[in-house]
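If you are new to this repository, start here. Below is one unmodified record pulled from the training split, so you can see the exact layout before writing a loader.
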Amino acid sequence: MAGSQLRKLAEVVAFLRGPKGCPWDRKQTHLSLIRYLREEAKELEKALKKGNWHEIEDELGDLLLNVMLHAQIESEKGRFDIDDVARSQALKLRRRHPHVFGAAKFRTADEVLRHWGTIKKGERALRDADVRRRTR
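And here is the target side for that same chain:
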């Protein structure tokens, strides 16, 4: 099952940030992790350009660790966790692919991209309206 190893990784990250974990990991914040996120993305780009699947796997893991750390920080604040991130991404992908999961008919990549932008604008408008509603 694809999720079992992700669950194990989430448990390791939570432990590292916990009271018996690592002082460095506990100290990290969203802002302090930005430099590592950039660094790992650049390293992944280099690995992808080289086409070495061992390096790609390793760099994807490093980037995934960054995502897991950010999700764990939010989980500690009670806002969301990595499952929420995965769920919201799956829902977003379904919304943005009405030609695959719905009745829309797009035949070319250009048609998909044109509609993708329209869908994103609609999502932003809904999110902004929701934020305004919550802050009243």
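Two things worth knowing about this chain: The chain has seven helices and no strands. The two ends are 43 Å apart (CA to CA).
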